[in-house]
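Severity: low
Component: inverse-folding endpoint
Summary: output formatting inconsistent between runs
Steps to reproduce: submit the following structure tokens with default settings.
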């Protein structure tokens, strides 16, 4: 490579290499080693200038007739074959070299092997070159290029041309390397905050951009690379459209519409085919590649239109975009705009003036502009997302402080140990669904030797629910010093909730149990209690916090000695297993005969979805009572 770097191309051309014109070559589909013979009858062979890849045959032969007499005077005459396929080369019926695996069609991309020539002068004057080629994919390629000359010079010429092309592309590749590095920064941000999937999706977009442009650089710089690896990596890179569309919708907090999911699915056909070609047998791989190739242009158009339409659909109308999202939305618009402009140039301009120097100059300029613009967009997006993540982290830290305070309050107001009440055996179980629950219960003695208890469930979760619980528990404990009437207690609790809970409400059941076994109950929309496995039929009123003049009538039930009273919250009834089946009221009635901890644990194992609270009370003679 270094020899070619310092070897002037003009001086090399003065040595007069012999290039084989395509007009002197013919081709034929099929495979027969006898076709390497120099004196073969070529009747039925077709002009190689008219060759097009055919899915019906993975192997073809190309034969060229050329005068190589000028190679006789060279010290080390050789032939160079520039072609991206697996092939074998023959000169006058003798094999001179090969590249790749002809049986499977595997090859190393960007090779231009140089094979030495050991023929007499007479043989080179009327040389017949035969090339046996295997195709595994249906990718269009230019005809094979064959040149004759000094062995060292042919290798240096190829290296010099590759280095010249790569110099132009190096600044572009540096930009995309920076984009790939930005992808790792985004991935680190995602690891720090796993709930922000948009960070991972944007990181995938950056890596796909790096993969695609590195793939281009490898080809432009003619860097030898196994074709199978390039196909696999290219298949991953072609998923850019999927990640970009998914990122934009996720970033805007919207679901990807079904139409876009369908378009994304169509866009994944091409990378799917690339990966599929690596595992299928030779013939089937070529047929599959040919089938996908027929829709490739339409698929590229669909991918481009999908990417262009995504920000238009996601952020329309612009006036309704949240202020914090506008900068990132603008970056998304710029991203797809740059890609669309580049694709338009490639399809509509370079196709019309493919060999034009002006077109190539414009292509180089636009390629550089595109790379710099994409890098600027990615840097801006990373900066904006980092700022947004920092703001989110600060808000989350503030919320965690509030939650910690709520947990501290709840630990105070939910009793961990139940004191002894003569004549009663009491058990409790409390299992919140989250860090802070909305259930509550309290048990206090009455002046007559009985028990006054309350159980309830506050709407909502988190800190607001915990604050409402503290309000209700405080109210209950204060009222218990002045009245033991369940209806009066509910009336006062309802008044305390009004205007203090931002539209929330609470269900609540207050029960007074006298030493004689007499139960007096008042219910505010809560689940009815169970006595010995049977639901108690009581009057039901409105939940607390809904109406200022809500009335809650009292019901009375008598407990026999040894009877079990069970109070629960709806977390028991609404426990749901993976199949979607609820515990329900029938199971709950049977469970109510069990100890409180077993009832709660059974519901939790079934599939807890809400806070679970269970309170059981057995009426017993005072000498057998226990806490």
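Observed output (run 2 of 3):
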């Amino acid at each position: 490579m270094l020899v070619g770097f310092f070897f002037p191309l003009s001086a090399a051309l003065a040595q007069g290499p012999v290039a084989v014109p395509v007009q002197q070559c013919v081709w034929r589909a099929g495979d027969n080693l006898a076709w390497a013979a120099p004196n073969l009858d070529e009747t039925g062979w077709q002009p190689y200038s008219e060759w097009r890849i055919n899915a019906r045959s993975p192997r073809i032969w190309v034969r060229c007739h050329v005068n190589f007499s000028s190679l006789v005077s060279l010290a080390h005459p050789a032939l160079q074959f520039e072609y991206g396929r697996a092939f074998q080369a023959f000169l006058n019926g003798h094999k001179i070299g090969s590249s790749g695996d002809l049986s499977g069609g595997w090859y190393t991309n960007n090779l231009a092997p140089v094979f030495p020539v050991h023929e007499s002068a007479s043989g080179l004057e009327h040389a017949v070159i035969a090339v046996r080629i295997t195709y595994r994919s249906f990718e269009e390629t230019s005809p094979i290029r064959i040149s004759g000359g000094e062995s060292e010079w042919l290798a240096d010429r190829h290296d010099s041309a590759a280095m010249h092309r790569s110099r132009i592309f190096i600044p572009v590749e540096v930009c995309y390397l920076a984009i790939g590095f930005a992808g790792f920064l985004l991935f680190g941000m995602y690891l720090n905050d796993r709930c922000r999937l948009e960070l991972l999706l944007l990181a995938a977009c950056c890596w796909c951009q790096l993969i695609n442009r590195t793939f281009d650089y490898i080809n432009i710089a003619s860097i030898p690379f196994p074709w199978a690896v390039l196909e696999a990596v290219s298949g991953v890179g072609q998923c850019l459209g999927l990640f970009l569309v998914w990122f934009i919708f996720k970033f805007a907090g919207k679901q990807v519409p079904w139409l876009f999911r369908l378009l994304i699915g169509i866009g994944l056909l091409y990378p799917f085919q690339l990966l599929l070609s690596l595992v299928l047998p030779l013939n089937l791989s070529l047929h599959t590649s040919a089938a996908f190739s027929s829709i490739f242009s339409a698929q590229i158009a669909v991918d481009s239109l999908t990417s262009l339409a995504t920000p238009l659909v996601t952020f329309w109308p612009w006036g309704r975009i949240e202020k914090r999202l506008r900068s990132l939305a603008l970056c998304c618009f710029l991203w797809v705009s740059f890609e669309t402009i580049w694709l338009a140039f490639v399809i509509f301009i370079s196709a019309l003036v493919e060999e034009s120097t002006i077109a190539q100059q414009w292509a180089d300029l636009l390629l550089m502009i595109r790379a710099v613009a994409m890098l600027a967009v990615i840097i801006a997006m990373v900066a904006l997302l980092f700022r947004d993540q920092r703001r989110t982290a600060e808000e989350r830290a503030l919320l965690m402080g509030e939650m910690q305070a709520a947990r501290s309050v709840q630990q105070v107001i939910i009793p961990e140990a139940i004191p002894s009440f003569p004549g009663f055996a009491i058990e409790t179980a409390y299992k919140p669904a989250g860090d802070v629950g909305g259930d509550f219960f309290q048990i206090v003695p009455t002046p007559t030797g009985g028990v006054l208890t309350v159980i309830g469930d506050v709407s909502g979760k988190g800190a607001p629910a915990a604050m409402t619980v503290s309000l209700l528990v405080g109210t209950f404990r204060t009222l218990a010093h002045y009245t033991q009437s369940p209806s009066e207690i509910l009336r006062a609790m309802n008044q305390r909730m009004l205007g203090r809970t931002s539209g929330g409400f609470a269900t609540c059941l207050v029960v007074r149990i006298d030493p004689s076994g007499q139960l007096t109950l008042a219910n505010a929309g809560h689940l009815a209690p169970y006595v010995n496995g049977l639901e108690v039929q009581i009057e039901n009123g409105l939940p607390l916090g809904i109406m200022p003049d809500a009335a809650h009538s009292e019901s009375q039930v008598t407990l026999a000695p040894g009877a079990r009273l069970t109070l629960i919250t709806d977390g028991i009834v609404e426990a749901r297993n993976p199949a979607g089946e609820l515990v329900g009221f029938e199971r709950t009635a049977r469970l109510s005969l069990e100890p409180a901890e077993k009832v709660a644990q059974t519901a939790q194992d079934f599939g807890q979805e809400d806070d679970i609270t269970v309170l059981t009370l057995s009426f017993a003679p005072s000498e057998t009572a226990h806490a």
